[in-house]
Amino acid sequence: MAGVAALTALRAAVRECQLAAPSFSNEQASEGLAVSDELRACLLPPACSTQAASLLLQLPAELLSVILTRLGTCHLARLAATCRSLCRDAPTPPPLPRAIGAVEIELRRRAETRGLDVGSSLPEGATSWVACLLKRDRRDAQMRHVPLALGQQHSIFIDQVGRLLTCGIDYDDGTPPLLGHAVDPDAHPDALQRIGPPTLVPSMDDRRIVSVATSDEHCLALSAEGEVYSWGHGEGGSLGHGDELEREIPSRIESLSCIERIAVGPVATSAAVDENGRLFMWGSATTTYYVADEDGEPEEFEGSSGLGNELDAETVFQATPRQVDALSQERVVGVALGETFTLAVTDAGAVFSFGSCQHGGLGHGSLLSVVLPRRIAALAVTGRRFVAVAAGGFHALALTEGGELYGWGGGESNGHGREERTPQRVAALIGQRVKLVHAHDCDSCAVTEKGELFTWGAFGRFGHLGHGVLGSQLEPRRVDGLRGVEVVAVAITGTHTLAADVGGVVWAFGLRSVLGLDASGTDNNAAVLTPTPIPTLRVRVLNSP
Predict the structure, then answer these.
(1) How many helices (H) and strands (E) does the chain have?
(2) Does the pLDDT at position 62 exceed 50?
(3) Does residue 51 sit within a domain?
(4) What CATH number has the domain bearing residue 448?
(5) What pLDDT, on the 0 to 100 scale, is given for residue 255?
(6) Calpha distance 461→496 (Å, rounded)
(7) Which domain holds residue 3?
(8) With contact defined as beta carbons under 8 Å apart, do 83 and 49 qualify?
(9) Which pTM does this prediction carry?
(10) Per-residue model confidence as pLDDT tens digits over 334-368
């Protein structure tokens, strides 16, 4: 009886709070959140025991909703697995409506808040709405939060508390400063700045960073508040500040706010997606690229870099972010920038491409340029819903909701070992459910749902493909040196690869001087062929639910 009375009193208190909420001060609202956190700690310990779940079932629906709102994806997954009554998404015989449990209600609320379309029917082969919604909630967070980014001579990290760290080499010879640290003005003109272990960027110490992106020329960092910071080479307006000035330390792009995703291209281009799914781009409107002629000699070409809008013939760069108008009716959830083109994936699962087309990188079956975004028909006819894209120099990858990987463009790194002008399923990964993809220049990698890392690409002169030897690997091959390690984040470039495991440990292989490893008494140009953990570093990762 005492328990019933207590629950009745709790229900009454919740109702009174709901009625009074509009007049709450900020201090009162903070106190209310603190109380809900304490209740969660009491009723739902990390182990998520059956006893704790049964206690939750006794709470008033209003209070239960408040607690579930404060839980992360991992805790919701444990709760759904522990307590069927809270999950309860098994179909019921018609004409009865399907019973929907509290966990599913909360997951649908989150998707609706983010403007994500969950659809009215389960994906092919799926049997549980809760499982599908949990996977989607986690995947969306993974795509937004990127803790690693690489250039040829530097690496960028986000540690477990959201601090920005870098390591690598800055040459004081006209090359862009990419480490985010102020260069000593008294240094010799030909000196270089080397940062061995990953080191905190001082100017960003008071910012909590959730995502990073970089090329060999410039860098972007995204804060938890949705602010974007840029530094490095400013040529072509790639830093987004309205000029072409170089910046040694991260500077906020004032015209951007409420951003959720960032991306950079191999040349002077950048992109960002805001919380409403609007795509913004800036940087060079034209780019110079090289293709081998019949004699194998490099031949120079000029083409569009794929900013997505019609521009005047005199416009050679766009120095401030501008929305891609042709996608204003779409909700963009992913973007990737190649050497001369851009890919965008929408919440509806459609993939668009635009820019100059070399080696079939646009995926439309020809080598013709496309100024405005055009949906890739070959992906549309598969009937699959695509959730992520990646772009290298002249190749592209697209990932379906079911973990199928498609590749096209340049043959060294599209997964097929030959040039493809339209997307084709990557045969070597059929039977694997891929959850993450990444590409850079002539290299690609994929992570499966089991956390296994596959890499492939051209050259491999520093052992950065992780297969214990130097040289090319034109089809996906598992990195056996990470067998037994569950990879949850990865970045690859032409000199090195970094993979973060489920505990935040970063495994590095490739060119030693940029790996963040202790380089004392060693040849910095040596190749590290075996995945090796970076000492003392833990990055911010989303643990598997």
Answers:
(1) 9, 30
(2) yes
(3) yes
(4) 2.130.10.30
(5) 97
(6) 10
(7) 1-82
(8) no
(9) 0.80
(10) 999 998 899 999 988 999 999 988 888 999 998 88
